[in-house]
Amino acid sequence: MNTDTTFAPLIELSGVNKHFGALHVLQDIELTVGRGEVVVVIGPSGSGKSTLCRAINRLEPIESGTITIDGRPLPAEGKGLAALRAEVGMVFQSFNLFAHKTVLENVTLAQLKVRRRGRAEAEAKGRALLERVGLASQADKYPAQLSGGQQQRVAIARALAMDPKALLFDEPTSALDPEMINEVLDVMRALATEGMTMVVVTHEMGFARSAAHRVVFMADGRIIEDRPPEEFFSSPRSERARDFLSKILKH
User: Fold this and answer.
1) Phi, psi of 172 (to 5 degrees)
2) Distance (Å, whole) CA 13 – CA 35
3) What is the Cα–Cα distance from 185 to 179, expressed in whole angstroms?
4) 168 with 74: CB under 8 angstroms?
5) CA angle 57, 58, 62 (to 5 degrees)
6) At 53, phi and psi to the nearest 5?
7) Rounded Cα–Cα distance for residues 236 and 230 (Å)
8) Where would you find the membrane-spanning parts of this chain (predicted)?
9) Contact (CB, 8 A) for 173 and 202
10) Residue 171 carries which DSSP code?
11) pLDDT per position in the chain (251 positions), as tens?
12) What backbone torsions phi and psi does residue 188 show, to the nearest 5 degrees?
């Protein structure tokens, strides 16, 4: 999985800064994610990982610097921003499914409203994607009838329904019970193998080792290391990364 393939740039961040009050949460971020590349972002709590992920599709506006997707600057607002969010899907920690809609309705709604697909086409695509994430039999249930792992797989299917150029995952397994984590990671590994461009904020080091092309280690709002996983895990260069790994890999 971890090869030295050169990827054409799809997501580019240059000189990106973001504050929350006095807290400088993103400091001069430089990051390029290639088409078909899987970049896993790790680091201690409060290091800026989730803010970085959310900035890529402007869920968090930045104060300075540039972000481009497929060569185009990130739109500030309006229809351009809505179009971008269809191109760059987001999977959240907390699923964010519509509780009053069935699983199939959750996966078809944005197809109808944003992609303007016909209902028959949207439902056919939705059912195919639910099959892909192992949930074809759950199409007519409501989110509350599913386990957390199943809900997160529905959220992934919903994101895929938009035919995105890239997917952003913001700690997608952190709200799950341990026995449900692998069912979500298995879907993500399959997407990685199929060539989906992915930026994944996670604490799952096994996924980082097995599925990432690069590991980005953040601390104090900065990117400290950006290296292939086998290099990062076997010989971290920074004291911060060594300290982080010594704590997280003990357990």
Assistant:
1) -70, -15
2) 14
3) 11
4) no
5) 130
6) -60, -45
7) 10
8) none
9) yes
10) S
11) 444 456 899 999 999 999 999 999 999 999 999 999 999 999 999 999 999 999 998 899 999 999 999 988 887 777 778 777 788 999 999 888 999 999 999 999 989 988 899 999 999 999 999 999 999 999 999 999 999 999 999 999 999 999 999 999 999 999 899 889 999 999 999 999 999 999 999 999 999 999 999 999 999 999 999 999 999 999 999 999 999 999 887 65
12) -65, -40
- Which two tokens mark 1? 């999985």
**What are the tokens at 19?**
């504050």
Position 212: which residue type? A
In 231-249, which positions are buried (b, 16+ CB within 10 angstroms) versus exposed (e)? Answer: ebbeebeeebbeebbeeee
16: which 2 tokens? 């990106």
* CATH topology assigned to domain 9-98+164-248: Rossmann fold (3.40.50)
